[in-house]
Every structure is written in C-alpha cells, then in structure tokens.
Amino acid sequence: MSLLEECVNYLNQPEFERFVRAWIEKYQSLGHLGGKIQLDNLSLPEQDALGLFLGLDLSCGYLYMTYHQFQKQFMKTKFEGIEFIDVLKCIQGSPLYTRHEIKEEKNLKIKQFKNQFLIKYQGTYALKWLSDYFNEDKKVNSYIMHDIEFYDLLENVCQALNHLPIYRKEYESLPVFAQKITKNPHYFDHGLAKELLLKGIEYIFQLSSQQRTVETINELFYQAGLLRDDLSNHCYICHISPINDISGWLGFYKNYEPWNMNLYNLSQVSSIFLQSHIYIVENPSVFRRLVYEIKNRKINVGLVCSNGQINLCTYMLLDRLVESGCHLYYAGDFDPEGLMIADKLKQRYQDHLTLWCYHLHYFKDNAIEQKNISLKRLQILENIQNVLLKSIAQYIIQKSCFVYQEGIIESYLENLKP
Fold this sequence. Notes:
This protein is of the alpha/beta class. It contains 21 helices and 12 strands. It is elongated and about 110 Å long. 27% of the residues are buried.
C-alpha cells in the first residue's frame, strides 16, 4: 500500500469527516487550499482523533486552524511529502472543482439542455411556449440539474402540445390521448406533467391564467380538444339543436323533449345551433315546469338547466349558442350562491345575456327569513359586481332573507317569450 493510500484510509474515518469536508469546501471557495477552517462542538471521538493527528489538545471542543498551520503539523506526520490536495481528491472520489468551475459546469449543462429542446422543436407549436417557459419559470433550472426524469417529462409535454386534437378540429378523451403520446393513460392526470401541459395550452391559445379548479382545468383541456370527464359532465336541455342533425338532437328538438346532454354529445357538433332565445335556470324543478309550458304552447325558445353551479358542459354549450347568434336569459335563486352564479355569467357573456326576472318586489310575497347568514356567504354577497345583482345582495344583507326560484315560477311563465 502506498503512503498516499495509507493516508487516504486514515483520514477516511468518520472522526475526520467534518475536517476533510471543511478543507474541500475551502478549496471550492478559494480555488486553492488556503484560508482557515473552524469546527465547533467537536465530539469526543473527533477530539481524540484530530488531536492525535494534529498534535493538539482539543478538549476545548473546537478547532480553529489556518492552512499554513495545518501544513506545518502535516509535515510532522508520517505522511510528509504527500500533496494534501491529492488526499482530498481520493477521499471525494472525483476531481475537486472550485465553486466557479461548478457554476460554469452547471450553466453549461442547463444551456445545452435548453438548446437541445429549442432546436428539436423549432417550427412547432411547442417552441414559443418552451422559450417562455425556459426564460420565465424559476424552477426549470433546478429540474434540469436534479430531476433525472425531467427530460422525458418535457419531451412528452412537447409532443402533446404538438398533437392536440383541436388542431384537427376534433375532440378526444384525455386518457386515450395520453396513451398515444406516452403509453400511460394517466400520465397527464396529475403532477408536473399535467401542470406543464396546462401552461402550454394557456400560452399557445393565449388564454389568461386562472386559479386551478376542477372546472377551469376541464375548460382548459376542452379548449385543446381534450375531454377529461366527457360523459359525467352534463346539463339538462330542451328544444335546442344544431342546424345539422347529430345523433338525434333534432328529434328531441322537434318533440320538445328534455334530455341530459353531456360534453361528449357537444363535442360531436361541428355546425352552429338554431337561433332562438335561450332561458337558463338553476333548479331542475323550475326547468321541468318550463319544459311543460313551452311544449304545450309550442313556444320557440330553448331551455337549459345548470342544476346549481355552472359546469364545463354548460359553459361550452352557452359559448356555442352565443356564437350561433342566440341570446341568453338567466334566472337563479336570490341567495348568495345563486347571485354569484348570475354575476359570473353576466361578466362572461356581457350584452349577450339578460338577467331574467331579477326584481326586489319578489321579496314581498316570497321572502324566506334567514336566522343566520354565515360570514362566508356574506362575503359572497359583498363581492357581487353587477349593479342590479348588487342591489339585491345588499337587500339580502339588510333584511336577512332569501327568495328561491320555485316561489316565482308564475313570473317566469308570464315572461317566457320567443
């Protein structure tokens, strides 16, 4: 065994670990061996081993030593003549690099990684998003340096962005799409892969970034032609049909039959819809009464029931109806959640939507007193933006009462006009 190997074995004991690490870090900091080190709270084994090696009494519990002092002590040991830098290299098991060299190496690796993707995806949908992602996301460099799976993940996201079904004016189930791209139907269901795909969709289609909720995520995927929940995402409709009959829409339309339309049904429609006034209500019981009325009187209007909160299927249908030239009328409960839904719809559709039968005089005969309105629900009322709805919200706060749709059905029937 050579003297260097003997020294390496000697200093590669646990008692010398902090001592050796301190000199390695000093070399990385300065670019050469020099300066000073300080070790506090030395354990008894460290005191004994370092004290014996350096010829010092370390019972005080700490070591303060310059490199010059260490060299003098090192030359008094049996390892005199050995280059200490060689010892450190052997213990570390790899070349010693300064912090500047490490930083340069890191920057080079990051640059090469990014350039590889930018060159590969030049001229594709993914390129513009990639450029923005590489420049703006603060986490990307960390992923490149520390996540060995990041290359494959980013590759899958770019492939997905370049093959979105909407480019072909088609819609496809997200699991089926993920299986084609990655061989894993659940690849884009969660985690970084899902988030980067959503960010890419937002960037490519110039959509404003929104808080991630189930509905906003579903809507983003839908904009790209991806259906995450196409069968269970549905709403009730009556007397609504595209111009070109698709899968029996026209039969329901002509017979004024209500049916439960889902996102898959809607995704099959490529034509515009027949123009009419569209009345949207929140509650199924009210919807059922209006269906009976328009069917018996053959009133040429369409009906939609959101059944509470507006889901993706309902939003996408209303978008298509507005694009087809239909005018929307919305009526909901006079309570915090009902007013919030109406407010969101009015903000989204502006002049294409009329708030239907929203009058304070309905409180006269239909108000239901509320003993306690929670702070959360009061905050919903305070955040209403539309002037008309805001006046109703303030009345609810002052009088502590609600009005539900079922109580004003007769007013809906009187105001139901083609």
